[in-house]
């Protein structure tokens, strides 16, 4: 066996034994039993490599055995290969070196969704809808999005040749782009979504998130914010310290944000707010869904338990296991292992049951209600600062549940083929859109209906039946505005165009009376606490 793989296998096996045992024993080396088990393991690897019925590498054997070992612990303890470890570290940074484009798969082709203004891609004239056919001469048709992104990124001031296929051009276009620093903004949007109403969405939590949120809130206050929608939908988490810094901007000073509890003494902790930031002081509605997990659940749980905002949307994922990442000295890899669990200020465990991995990953019911969970949870009833009931058992259950309506079947098929995206950008190339008051004209909708049939996406009768529904036409109209505004005016203008058909955002705008009442009760509680403290001081003085 190559020495590097023997060392990596031994390191991982020993790490698992040490971490699974008592760290408090301060073990410096392996016991005789541990040495025996490690020798058995390396012998098994050697035998499998030499005797297995087909050629297999040490890497395959070691990685497979590692994944099998960790699968027996919990769903989130994982081995990070060199590539995965590097990606994790990069994701946590506030910037990277690249071109400055959002890309995705459209009809199986790597496509520019939108260039970011001011970046090299934008300066070189790359456009939304451009198909990236080659990267440095290598065809992208066998690459997935992550592979393509890794090739587009690189050291600062280095160049990459991107071959574009653009509608209207007879020949592919080679563009040489010099990589530059690209900010990884985690606050995707911060703007006034309605008069007096701010909207702020957080994609995930990286090293810059706390500062981004603080700046976003200041900008919204300056714009006249009287109420706020905080959107955590699809936020899968990230760095705990940044979630804490964001929570610090919403919950009362010196209040619990989250607790961790584990098996060993060092895993127990209670994290409280510092009071560093100005009190939000406006009615707050927080949007969550099944894609909200981990750090975003910590934030939503703290806001709900302290009654400073109304949680709206769908139940969150329920990921409340604390992973500590250990850098493995040999093999340039990492081990993310569960060392504790997260609990909200009221005492609720965030982690959902994972007895069955199949159910955990495939059968999560996003239509679970508070009543359903209460029945499942039995005695797992907890109380917020104001005495409102909240339920344990996993995830954060919204105060007001808003489930999304099922889309029309034809629309589902069109979205799967990126049909609205393709048609809208083609239309805009022939009919320039110059301002955000633009609305798709009737002939554009009619042309789209005919185009759907020509492309074979649906039969004429199906299309006619679907487009007879005014809600379908309204959906398509606003999706067209979204795609065109996204490509011409930027992500914020695109988002505003789409928000009017976002059922959960529309519902949130109608729930500020409830959020205002909650805030008034919260202020009453705070005033009562201040009076009680003053009375106590006066009594002591007497």
Write up this protein.
With about 550 residues, the chain is an alpha+beta fold. The chain has 19 helices and 21 strands. The protein has helices spanning about 5-20, 30-50, 60-70, 80-90, 120-125, 145-150, 210-220, 240-245, 295-305, 355-360, 370-375, 410-415, 420-430, 440-455, 460-465, 470-490, 490-500, 505-510, 510-540, and strands at about 80, 95-100, 100-105, 110-115, 130-135, 140, 160-165, 175-180, 180-185, 185-195, 195-200, 225-230, 255-260, 270, 285-290, 310-315, 320-330, 335-345, 380-385, 390, 400. The strands form six sheets. The protein has a six-stranded mixed sheet, sandwiched between helices. Strands 1, 13, 14, 17 and 18 form a five-stranded antiparallel sheet that branches. Strand 3 and strand 4 form a beta hairpin. The protein is globular. The N and C termini lie far apart (about 80 Å).
The number of strands is 21
* Residue windows where pLDDT falls under 50 for at least 5 positions: 16-28, 530-542
* Beta-strand percentage range: 15-25%
Supply the helix-strand structural class. alpha+beta
CATH superfamily of the largest domain: 2-enoyl-CoA Hydratase, Chain A, domain 1
User: What's the overall geometry?
Assistant: globular
- Can you give the mean pLDDT? 84
CA(first)-CA(last) distance: 81 Å
Number of domains: 4
Q: How many strands, what sense, and barrel or not for the largest sheet?
A: 6 strands, mixed
Approximately how much helix is present in the residues? 40-55%
Please identify, by name, the CATH architecture of the largest domain. Answer: Alpha-Beta Complex
What is the CATH class designation of the largest domain? Answer: Alpha Beta
The number of distinct helices, counting runs of at least 4 residues, comes to 19
């Amino acid at each position: 066996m190559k020495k590097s793989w023997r060392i990596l296998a031994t390191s991982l096996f020993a790490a698992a034994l040490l971490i699974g045992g008592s760290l408090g024993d301060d073990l410096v080396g392996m016991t005789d039993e541990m040495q025996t088990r490690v020798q058995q393991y390396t012998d098994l690897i050697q035998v499998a490599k030499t005797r297995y019925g087909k050629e297999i590498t040490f890497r395959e054997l070691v990685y497979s055995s590692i994944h099998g070992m960790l699968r027996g612990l919990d769903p989130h303890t994982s081995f990070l290969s060199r590539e995965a470890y590097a990606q994790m570290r990069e994701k946590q940074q506030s910037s990277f070196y690249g071109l400055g484009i959002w890309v995705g798969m459209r009809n199986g082709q790597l496509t520019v969704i939108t260039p970011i203004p001011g970046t090299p891609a934008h300066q070189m004239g790359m456009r939304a809808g451009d198909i990236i056919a080659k990267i440095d001469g290598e065809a992208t048709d066998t690459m997935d999005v992550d592979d393509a992104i890794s090739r587009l990124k690189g050291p600062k001031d280095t160049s990459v040749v991107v071959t574009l296929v653009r509608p209207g051009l007879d020949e592919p276009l080679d563009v040489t782009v010099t990589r530059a620093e690209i900010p990884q903004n985690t606050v995707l949007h911060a703007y006034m979504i309605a008069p007096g109403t701010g909207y702020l969405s957080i994609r995930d939590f990286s090293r810059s998130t706390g500062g981004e949120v603080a700046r976003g809130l200041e900008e919204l206050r300056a714009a006249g914010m009287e109420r706020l929608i905080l959107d955590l939908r699809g936020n899968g988490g990230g760095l705990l310290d940044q979630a804490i810094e964001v929570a610090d901007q919403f919950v009362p000073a010196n209040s619990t944000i989250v607790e961790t509890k584990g098996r060993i003494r060092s895993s127990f902790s209670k994290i409280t707010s510092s009071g560093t930031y100005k009190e939000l002081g406006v009615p707050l509605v927080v949007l969550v869904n099944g894609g909200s997990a981990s750090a975003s659940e910590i934030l939503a749980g703290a806001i709900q338990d302290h009654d400073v905002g109304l949680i709206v949307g769908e139940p969150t994922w329920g990921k409340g296991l604390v992973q500590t990442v250990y850098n493995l000295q040999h093999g340039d890899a990492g081990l993310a292992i569960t060392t504790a669990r997260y609990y909200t200020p009221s005492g609720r465990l965030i982690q959902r049951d994972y007895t069955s991995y199949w159910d955990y990953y495939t059968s999560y019911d996003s239509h679970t209600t508070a009543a359903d969970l209460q029945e499942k949870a039995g005695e797992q009833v907890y109380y917020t600062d104001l005495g409102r009931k909240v339920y344990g058992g996993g995830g954060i259950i919204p105060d007001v549940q808003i489930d999304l309506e099922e889309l029309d079947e034809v629309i589902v098929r069109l979205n799967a083929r990126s049909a609205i995206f393709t048609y809208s950008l083609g239309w805009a190339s022939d009919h320039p859109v110059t301002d955000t008051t633009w609305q798709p004209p009737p002939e554009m909708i009619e042309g789209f209906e005919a185009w759907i049939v020509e492309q074979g996406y649906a039969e004429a009768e199906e299309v006619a039946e679907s487009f007879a529904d005014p809600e379908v036409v309204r959906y398509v109209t606003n999706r067209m505005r979204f795609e065109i505004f996204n490509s011409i005016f930027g992500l914020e203008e695109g988002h505003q165009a789409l928000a009017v058909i976002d059922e959960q955002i529309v519902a949130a705008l109608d729930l500020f009376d409830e959020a205002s009442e909650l805030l008034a009760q919260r202020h009453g509680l705070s005033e009562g606490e201040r009076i009680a403290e003053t009375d106590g001081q006066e009594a002591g003085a007497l």
